[in-house]
Amino acid sequence: MSATQSPEPESGRPHAASHTDRLRSEPLSRGAHLLVAVYFAVALLYLGWRPTTFNPDALAFSLTVYAAELFGFFLTLLHLFMTGRLTLREPPPAPPGLSVDVFVPTINEPVELVRRTLLAAARMDYPHVTWLLDDGNRPEMRALAGELGCHYLARTENTDAKAGNLNNALIHARGEFVAFFDADHAPRRDFLHRTLGYFDDARVAFVQTPQDFFNLDSYEHRQAGKGRRVWMEQSFFWRVIQRGKDYWNAAFFCGSCAVMRRSALDGIGGVATGSVTEDLMTSLRLHKRGWHSVYHAESLAFGVAPADAGQYLKQRLRWGQGAMQVWRREGVLFARGLSWPQRLSYLATVFAYLDGWQKLVFYLAPAIVLFTGIMPLTELDIEFFLRFVPYYLLTFLVFEEMGRGYGRALLIEQYNMARFAAFLMASFGFFRRKLRFAVTDKALGADKRSLLPLVPQLAVLGVNFLAVPTALAMHARAPVLPEAALAANIVWALVNSGLAAVLLRFHRGRSRYQRREYRFPVPLPARLLVAGEPAAFGTIDDISGEGFSFYGRIGDVLSREQILRVDIFMPTTVLAVDAAVRSLRYGGAAEARYVKAIGCSFKWRDRDEQDQLAVFLYGSDAQWKINRFDERVPTPLQRLRRWLGLLGPEKPAAVPRWAPAIVQAAGAPAMAIISIGAAERHLIALRPLPAGAPLLLSAYTRRGVTRLEGVVDAGETIATPTQPMHHYILRRKTGMDPSTK
After folding, report:
1. What 3 state SS string does 514-567 have?
2. Which has more confidence, 171 or 157?
3. Where are stretches of biased composition, namely Basic and acidic residues (predicted)?
4. SS3 for 509?
5. Please, which residues have CB within 8 angstroms of residue 588's CB and are 6 or more apart in sequence?
């Protein structure tokens, strides 16, 4: 059946086997199966034994701590269910001739941000109509849509927030399929080609892709120095959880970076209203009607992650409140039309937002013990530790193993600390009929210095830290707690204090960033032109719409505010721009000091210049591919195998330094950049190079021109919104002594 045929499936519950039998999934290793089996055995031994340790004189306290432990075990069971099988999908080719509308809703986002998204959306390869849906009813947005050739639609009343905006657009649009992008999410050119083919299955209602983010310095991202390890707080959800849900036909629509069948949406009355998370409620209604969903786990669009704690927590609060609304209004565990795996998947989503109560118990329990001398246990003896330590150690090990390298327990615990109070507040959304839709601020230059959003974390730090000297003083005067209990609770309180302190330190570090634009670590070859001086080849990096850094053989002829001409070599063009010198960065010792780099701001002559650069930078993962960034870390079993010598050593994690190069291949020159200062030579060319053919390279460094000869094998294509770049490993055929001109 073709994708243009879209009859609604039978309203009965879809049979789980008919869905999963067709899907390939990532197998779980025998070692992981064994680890999970051991975990279950230890968990049952510990949790089954724990009621025998209750303190009868503090039964409420004992039951509260035990309930928090049981809740954690229940969440772990749901986690194991969702991560046991992860789908492996290869997209079918998109059939020609489908009619597609692309919706970009906005209300108060900056014009430049929306412009970038519209530029990327309008340039998607598959024929479509792009709509700007303006709930802010702003003249500048109407003008922007007209300039870029997009349809413009505004409302006089903003009823039902984002869901109402989308439903209003459905009245006017006529496409068979609708793609949704938030105002900050710039899609790749091939987004529609990579998603529309799934609709050949007439049961598919929507295809969801990951929501990735380009600003790697956001509140959600962690990067160790200048290394290749870059992790995002949502990595585990997008790389693992959604794939696990997908196996059970339970991946849910996330509001952006998705395509939906129009007839499926019409069949449930449009995008769900009455919730601050319209996407989750819409997904549930579609699944209850028997529709299928697809999660395509390839990053195809890139947006702005919350830049500070306030916006991050505001977003999590809304998500949690929406989950509570869905639980109350739609039902989850006993919802008609859902299979049991779907019910468990939605239950896991909802229950995750109750995690704040468990964390509150664990954050306060040691302080209560230390301040009052009241224990939730009769005693802490060797038997307790022999049961307690293996259980919690295995809990962390199983989580990381099932996370396939994306579930980094220590970092996730920091974010658990950050959001526990937001999740506490969100849980009360179950009892509230109406909630206000809070839009996340996408501005990167927002004020992040305030500690107000982290007052609960400051309280955890203060209460636990003060409990330690208080308990020691009480113990010195008149011992109440046994020494083992005193020591254990002091350690627990210090762990809580340390976790809060690490979070506050991270917050302080992020607060120092005040740039209005994210600077992409995308090195490009460039040529610096200064009046009266020879042209200097170099590399530009840290690029944004406002400026860049230039590295090369600069000399001492530059001064601040000096105007330069810079030729930026890009895959499809040479962008000749004017720039002003803003800073000079020096290297070397005092007696041999030199200008290592210059910081520049663009002096744009026209809008087209800006758009050419914006189109290249946004809407791709080029910064990941060029720098070889990696979210994954070895799992516990992989680390064990490496320790036993069964796996090779890890590759170095340093990001290479780059120099511009001119490559002579088959008689034709090609611009490229080449890594320097490392044994392995990475070469990124702006056009494809012939595999196996002899290459002559001239690499331009601060010391001069280095001549190299070599060959390359078939390389890796790095997609960009214009034309691809090409990554190779240069194999030295003949080494020549570096010569300097």
Report:
1. CCCCCCECCCEEEEEECCCCCCEEEEEECECCCEEEEEECCCCCCCCCCEEEEE
2. 171
3. 10-23
4. helix
5. 594, 596
Contact 448, 511 (CB under 8 A): yes
Contact 471, 370 (CB under 8 A): yes
In CATH terms, the fold of domain 98-305 is Spore Coat Polysaccharide Biosynthesis Protein SpsA; Chain A (3.90.550)
Question: What is the pLDDT at residue 486?
Answer: 96
Helices then strands, each counted (H, E), the chain: 21, 27
pLDDT band at 448 (very low <50, low <70, confident <90, very high): low
Which residue type, as a one-letter code, is found at position 340? Answer: W
Query: Rounded to a whole number, what is the largest CA-CA distance in the chain?
Result: 89
Q: Counting beta carbons within 10 angstroms of the beta carbon of residue 69, is it exposed (0 to 12), middle (13 to 18) or buried (19 or more)?
A: buried
> Mean pLDDT across the stretch 464-475?
96
Q: Which amino acid is at 498?
A: G
Q: Hey, what are 619's tokens?
A: 């809407």
- The amino acid present at 38, given as its one-letter code, is V
Element (H, E) at 642: helix 636-643
How far is residue 256's CA from residue 104's CA, in Å, rounded to a whole number?
9
**Phi, then psi, of 206 in degrees rounded to 5:** -150, 155
Q: At residue 645, does pLDDT exceed 90?
A: no
- Which one has a higher pLDDT value, 666 or 19? 666
- CATH no. for 524-618: 2.40.10.220
Chosen CATH of 657-741 out of 2.40.10, 1.10.10, 2.60.40, 3.40.50: 2.40.10
d(CA 87, CA 294): 10
* Amino acid occupying residue 237: F
Could you report the per-residue pLDDT of 398-445, keeping only the tens digit for each? Answer: 999 999 999 999 999 999 999 999 999 999 988 876 666 556 666 655
Q: How far apart are CA 360 and CA 420, in angstroms?
A: 7
How far apart CA 319 and CA 325 sit, in angstroms, is 10
As annotated, the residues of the chain forming the CATH 2.40.10.220 domain(s) are: 524-618
What residue type is assigned to position 484 of the chain? Answer: A
Q: How far is Cα 54 from Cα 60, in angstroms, rounded to an integer?
A: 10
Q: Single out the residue of 319, 364, 348, 322 nearest to residue 68, CA to CA.
A: 364
The CA–CA distances, whole Å, from 435 to 179, 222, 441 equal 27, 32, 18
Positive or negative: CA dihedral 372, 374, 379, 385: negative
pLDDT reported for residue 447: 52
Dihedral over Cα of 259, 260, 262, 265: its sign: negative
Tell me what pLDDT residue 593 has. 81
Structure token pair of residue 648: 């090779």
Note the pLDDT tens digit of each residue in 16-57: 445 555 789 998 899 999 999 999 999 999 999 999 999 999
Instruction: Give per-residue burial for 10-33: e unless 16+ CB within 10 Å, then b.
Output: eeebbebeebbeebebeebeeebe
Question: CB atoms < 10 A from the CB of 454, how many?
Answer: 21
Residue 35 burial (C-beta neighbours within 10 Å; 0-12, 13-18, 19+): buried
Within the chain, all domains assigned CATH 3.90.550.10 are found at 98-305
Amino acid type, 516 = R
| Token pair of 642 as six digits | 């490496």
Confidence band of 349 (pLDDT split at 50, 70, 90): very high
Average pLDDT value for residue range 370-387: 94
Q: Among 100, 282, 92, 294, which residue's Cα sits nearest to residue 207?
A: 294
The single residue listed with the structure tokens 């849509």 is 145
Q: What pTM value is reported for the model? A: 0.92
Contact 699, 663 (CB under 8 A): no
pLDDT given for residue 730 in this prediction: 92
Tokens representing 495 are 């762990």
Length, in residues, of the chain:
741
For the segment 591-609, the average pLDDT, to the nearest whole number, is 90
Please give the structure tokens belonging to residue 235. Answer: 């990595």
How much is the average pLDDT of 301-330? Answer: 93
